[in-house]
Design a protein that fits this description.
The structure holds two protein chains of two kinds. By secondary structure, chain A is α+β, with helices and mostly antiparallel strands. Helices cover 51% and strands 21% of the residues of chain A. The two termini of chain A are 39 Å apart. By secondary structure, chain B is of the alpha/beta class. Chain B folds into two domains: 128 residues, Response regulator (Rossmann fold), CATH 3.40.50.2300; 60 residues, Winged helix-like DNA-binding domain superfamily/Winged helix DNA-binding domain (Arc Repressor Mutant, subunit A, Orthogonal Bundle), CATH 1.10.10. Chain B has a five-stranded parallel sheet, sandwiched between helices. The two termini of chain B are 32 Å apart. The model of chain B has no long low-confidence stretch (mean pLDDT 87). The chains are: A alpha+beta, B alpha/beta.
């Protein structure tokens, strides 16, 4: 037996459950870790895509500003050309809300806009006009719904692009709809726009990617964040995995139980053989004892016969009488040995037609020595002409012998005059019923409930297998074996279906 | 066979054993009275008979050993030969303590059985004879008066007349008269004969 077999079964169960739980936790950690790294990879890719898109748009805006400045220089103050150009640009770049031209006049800045809306404050325009040209001169001002880019074309003209934050955010998220937040701010920390999605609480910090746009005129910083687990905790897979683990644990437990019951069955078989050998030893001792009687008689008869023959004249009549007595007693010895042989011979397994009355009689004769020694009165009440049952006569005999032995042991607890053993056979519908009943005080409630349980015994030094084996023999033959208390003792009822040999 | 020849009582519940042993014992000329159980034996037992009892240890109901221990109360003075299936030391010891003469193991050989039976019969005869002597001595001692018996006890103890007189608070002359009377009543001539008769009488 492996060491685990000797463990307390409860501790063993607890340990198994803990091991299973540990497996579940490890699986969850593995699954979540896996999910996180997959999420991070996805997020990095998506954030790079967003970054590329935003950089590209910024470059477009720089190019638009450069084109506007170039056009102003080529055709200064040509309003129709300018407005046509500005409108076509605005239509080509959806992130642009409006393209604006500001011209300095005596009263202030005069705005031309492709899309109306409020003009930029003069302060910003003055500041932009002071800037040098080229990409280095791009100024930015934050609006409620986006930002405005300014570029001066000389000292009196300033072009502006109003950029829509929602449009940019939409573009940035076109490849990554699952950002938790995405925002852009200027290099000096002013937030240009910011979009945030309500996120579920998570014990892990959000994934984040922050990168400056690779554009000289608009060195803005994009920041995107993402929930650590893209689709949250993967409960479906987790539960599926746990179920598989549970099933595997159950399978393992089942195989273990199978293995244990198989080992137990093997042990039982071995012990059963031992018990049988033990029982055979007892029976053999009893029979050896019984053999002494005919042997004594044979010896005395033959010696008497010799003496009668040696008389002068020989007494032939008495010599013959003594000799035939010896013959009779020798036959008796032979019959005893035959019974022993029948008891010892292994059973064939094939079901034969068995007369239970005969089996009971044979068992009683095997036990007669024990009953005699223990001064047990045997009352035999057998129904005549019982139909046969199918099975092994030898196996049934072992069962009856076992029941008789138990009864004989129980009867040691009561004074000799009260030691009575009843054995009855009856036909009850389709069943032959044999009842072995003793007056030995009966079984207590616990013993009655557990009497057929393997290794349960009330006998000192008993193995607790006798009745278990008996029951399995009877079950195998399609019958039942029951225990009950009646009057002053225990009664074991054996029921076997009527049947012929197979 | 006549009433004067010894009788062997045989008590065994096994028909085969009982029949064959009866046959064997009768083949050497012994009278056998066989019984299958204690009741049958007690019913057939003759108090005056000389003989022995062969008793099987293992019997249903009252065992041979239990019966053996009960024999004195039944007035059975027969020497007992026990028969047993196997030489069980405990049973053997109990049998001898219970007064068994011999303990034989089955299957029993004829010589051992017949020797044991003959030895038992001889023992019985001797004990009956001893019993007869004792009874005769007791009858003679019964003729003495109380005072004479007191004097006799002291004589057997080896006391002189003077010592006896002092013990019993009598005169030496009176003691001498008692002494002469008891010698005469018991029909003995010497002190040696007197002592022997006394011992025979008290042995029973």
């Amino acid at each position: 037996m492996p060491a685990a077999m000797r463990l307390n079964p409860r501790l063993f169960l607890l340990g198994s459950v803990l091991a299973w739980l540990a497996c579940c936790v490890l699986f969850a950690a593995w699954l979540i870790g896996n999910e996180r790294s997959r999420t991070r990879d996805d997020f990095t890719t998506q954030a790079r895509i967003a970054y590329s898109i935003l950089t590209q748009r910024a470059e477009q805006q720089e190019a638009v500003l450069a084109s506007l400045v170039a056009l102003e220089h080529a055709m200064p103050g040509n309003a129709p050309v300018m407005s046509n150009f500005a409108l076509s640009i605005q239509h080509g770049y959806p992130q642009l809300v409006s393209v604006e031209r500001y011209g300095r006049e005596d009263t202030g800045w005069r705005m031309f806009s492709t899309n109306g809306g409020a003009a930029a404050p003069s302060r910003q325009l003055d500041a932009a006009a002071d800037q040098p040209g080229g990409t280095a001169g791009t100024q930015v001002a934050v609006l409620d719904d986006g930002y405005r880019l300014f570029r001066a074309a000389g000292h009196d003209v300033v072009f502006a692009l109003r950029v829509s934050a929602p449009a940019l955010a939409e573009l940035a998220q076109s490849g990554a709809p699952s950002f938790q937040s995405v925002q852009m701010r200027t290099a000096d920390g002013r937030t240009l726009w910011r979009y945030e999605h309500p996120a579920a609480w998570s014990p892990w910090p959000a994934l984040q990617l922050e990168k400056q746009l690779n554009t000289r005129g608009q060195p803005f910083v994009m920041t995107a964040t993402h929930a650590p687990l893209g689709a949250g905790v993967p409960w479906g897979r987790l539960v599926l995995g746990w179920s598989i683990l549970g099933a595997a644990a159950a399978l393992a437990a089942w195989s273990m139980a199978q293995y244990r019951s198989r080992t137990l069955a093997q042990r039982q078989l071995r012990l059963a053989q031992a018990t049988r050998i033990n029982a055979m030893g007892e029976v053999a001792a009893g029979i050896a004892h019984e053999l002494n009687q005919p042997l004594t008689a044979v010896l005395a008869n033959t010696q008497a016969s010799v003496r009668w023959l040696e008389d002068d004249p020989p007494d032939l009549v008495r010599a013959r009488e003594a000799a035939s007595g010896a013959v009779q007693q020798a036959r008796r010895a032979g019959a005893i040995l035959k019974r022993l042989r029948e008891f010892i011979s292994p059973h064939t397994g094939a079901a034969e037609a068995v007369d239970l009355n005969r089996v009971v009689d044979d068992a009683l004769s095997l036990m007669s020595e024990t009953f005699r020694q223990r001064q047990i009165r045997v009352v035999r009440n057998m129904a005549p002409n019982l139909p046969t049952v199918a099975g092994s006569a030898v196996a049934f005999e072992q069962v009856i012998v076992n029941l008789l032995l138990n009864a004989a042991d129980a009867l040691l607890h009561v004074p000799a005059p009260q030691r009575a053993l009843h054995i009855d056979s009856t036909l009850d519908g389709p069943q032959v019923v044999v009842v072995v009943r003793d007056s030995g005080g009966g079984l207590n409630a616990e013993a009655l409930a557990r009497v057929f349980e393997p290794f349960y015994t009330t006998k000192e030094g008993g193995m607790g297998l006798g009745l278990t084996i008996c029951e399995s023999i009877i079950h195998e033959a399609g019958g039942t074996l029951g225990a009950a208390n009646v009057d002053a003792g225990a009664a074991f009822t054996l029921r076997l279906p009527v049947g012929a040999a197979t | 066979m006549n009433q004067q020849s010894p009788v062997v009582y045989l008590l065994d519940d096994d028909d085969g054993v009982r029949g064959s042993l009866s046959m064997l014992l009768s083949s050497v000329g012994l009278r056998v009275q066989a019984a299958a159980n204690a009741e049958a034996f007690i019913a057939s037992f003759d108090r005056d008979a000389i003989g022995c009892l062969i008793l099987d240890i293992r019997m249903p109901g009252e065992s041979g050993l239990q019966l053996l221990e009960r024999l004195p109360t039944l007035g059975v003075d027969l020497p007992v030969v026990m028969l047993t299936g196997h030489g069980d030391m405990a049973a053997c010891r109990r049998a001898f303590r219970g007064g068994a003469m011999e303990f034989l193991t089955k299957p029993v050989d004829e010589d051992a059985l017949i020797d044991a039976v003959q030895a038992a019969v001889r023992t019985h005869i001797a004990s009956r004879e001893r019993g007869a002597v004792t009874r005769a001595a007791q009858e003679r001692l019964a003729r003495l008066t109380e005072r004479e018996r007191e004097v006799l006890v002291h004589i057997v103890d080896g006391l002189s007349n003077k010592q006896i007189a002092r013990r019993l608070d009598l005169s030496p002359r009176t003691v001498e008269t008692h002494r002469a009377n008891l010698f005469e009543k018991l029909g003995v001539d010497s002190l040696a004969q007197l002592v022997r008769l006394y011992l025979d009488g008290v042995r029973g």
